[in-house]
Structures are given as C-alpha cells and as structure tokens.
Specification:
By secondary structure, the protein is α+β, with helices and mostly antiparallel strands. It is 55% helix and 11% strand. The protein starts with a helix and ends with a strand.
C-alpha cells in the first residue's frame, strides 16, 4: 500500500488507527511529506466512490490545510446528500451542513469559533 492509499483507507474507516484524531495526525504528516499527492488521493477516492471519505477529507482539509482549495472543492463536488459521522464510533451532536457531517462534541467548540455566523453548524 502506498501512503496515499493508506490515507484513503483511514478516511473510509478511521477506526483502523483508533479514530479520527489519529487520522488527523497521519493526514498532517502526509501533507508535509514528499509522498503528498492530492491528485492521486482524489483519484483513489473517485475509484472507490466513498462519499463519507470525501466528506471527512474535505472537512479535515478545511481545518488543517485551508489553502488546498482545489481538493476541498473536489471533495465537496463528490459528496452526496447523505449524512455521515466524522468518526463512526463517537457520539456526535453537532451537524456541519457544508459537509453533511455529524461532529463529535469535542470538535464543536473548535469548529464553532471558525464558522460562527457562516451557517455551517446547527444545534440538534
């Protein structure tokens, strides 16, 4: 498996590495590495056709690599209208409308500050 394919696998199933926080660590290291290949990452995701992975990647890229606008746009383009959890194992009480993602409580304050008044977050 290549580093890029590993990122895809982690986005599909964050529990492989113990949850979304660990996925974030791996993703950040990938983005700083010589292995970074965002075009290949999007192509893998298209081949696998997993909307949840596109949503997770788009959300995380907005958080940790907001200058990567092209990949964020691609993720949004290939997201479906279905709702997904950022981390399937965690209880999520906030919904990020832009990504159609349920976000765990420990993420809401961080995201809420960034998006206040932008309509991205709804209380449920």
């Amino acid at each position: 498996s290549s580093p890029t394919r590993t990122i895809v696998d982690l986005l599909i199933n964050p529990n492989i590495v113990g949850g979304i926080r660990n996925v974030v660590d791996v993703l950040i290291n990938y983005l700083k590495s010589d292995f970074k290949n965002l075009k290949m990452l999007v192509n893998y995701l298209k081949l696998i056709n997993n909307s949840a992975a596109f949503k997770r990647l788009g959300f995380l890229m907005e958080e940790y690599a907001p200058k990567e606008k092209q990949i964020i746009q691609s993720c949004n383009q290939f997201s479906t209208i279905s709702k997904t959890k950022l981390d399937p194992k965690l209880t999520s009480k906030k919904f990020v409308t832009r990504w159609r993602l349920w976000v765990p409580k420990n993420w809401e304050k961080q995201y809420d500050k960034k998006t206040r008044n932008n309509g991205f977050l709804e209380k449920t």
